[in-house]
Every structure is written in structure tokens, then in C-alpha cells.
Write a structure and sequence with these properties.
Layout (H helix, E strand, L loop, with lengths): L8 E6 L21 E10 L17 E9 L10 E4 L2 E11 L12 E9 L1
Antiparallel strand pairs: 1-2, 1-4, 2-3, 3-6, 4-5, 5-6
Length: 120
């Protein structure tokens, strides 16, 4: 399937597969790497930033770097995934949104998700 946005970016979804068992101390072993690239994504800066002195900044300095990503229709994005955008690893924030089918054209819309890196 060709990328829907010919000048879009490639982002990498970082996904760990199910744990194959537990170590001798009872801790889950990491599952296999199931990461994959998604090409043709639109990556935009996040529209909102935390309010200075708001709950996100109580008792520490917080810097949030984030993007909104519009991925091709039908892409499997999970809230447990992480994503590498422009070399920065981010957490998927919230539930990815599938725009569904456009009632005027019949075409599927993008899958939209928020990606944030929080430090501090």
C-alpha cells in the first residue's frame, strides 16, 4: 500500500511481544522485539503545553516534548507501544483514534495518536 502522504515521515513503533516466562526470581522475561516502521506519517507539534505552575509542574521542573501523528489508515497502534520520532523515543498518550471512513469519499481516514516524552 503506498503511503497516503508522499512527503510524510517514517516513524518506528517500538513494541515488545508477550513474555515467554519468568526468571529465577519470578520477574517476567522481556518478550521478543515486534517493532516496525510506518512510512507516510504526518507529524505535527502538539498544540498544548502544560500551564506554568499547574499540576504537571508541582514540586519539580517538567519539560514535555510531544507530537500528534497521523498514520495511514488501518495501522495497528496500541497504548502500550512506544514510538521513535525524529530520533526521540516517546510514549503513546491516550487511546489512538481511527478516523474511520469519510462519508463523502468513502476513503479511510488516518489513525491519530499523541506521542509525548516527559522528563524532569
Amino acid at each position: 500500500m503506498p503511503a497516503p502522504y508522499p512527503f510524510g515521515e517514517t516513524v518506528r513503533i517500538l513494541r515488545t511481544g508477550p513474555s515467554p516466562g519468568r526468571d529465577p526470581r519470578g520477574q517476567p522475561l522481556p518478550g521478543p522485539d515486534l517493532s516496525f516502521d510506518i512510512s507516510g506519517c504526518v507529524v505535527t507539534p502538539r498544540e498544548q503545553t502544560p500551564t506554568v505552575g499547574g499540576s504537571e509542574q508541582q514540586a519539580r521542573d517538567t519539560v514535555i516534548v510531544g507530537w500528534t501523528v497521523y498514520a495511514p489508515a488501518g495501522v495497528d497502534i496500541r497504548t502500550t507501544d512506544r514510538v521513535r520520532i525524529r530520533g526521540v523515543v516517546c510514549e503513546i498518550t491516550g487511546e489512538p483514534g481511527d478516523w474511520g471512513r469519510n462519508p463523502f469519499t468513502g476513503l479511510r481516514g488516518p489513525v491519530q495518536f499523541a506521542a509525548d516524552r516527559v522528563t524532569g
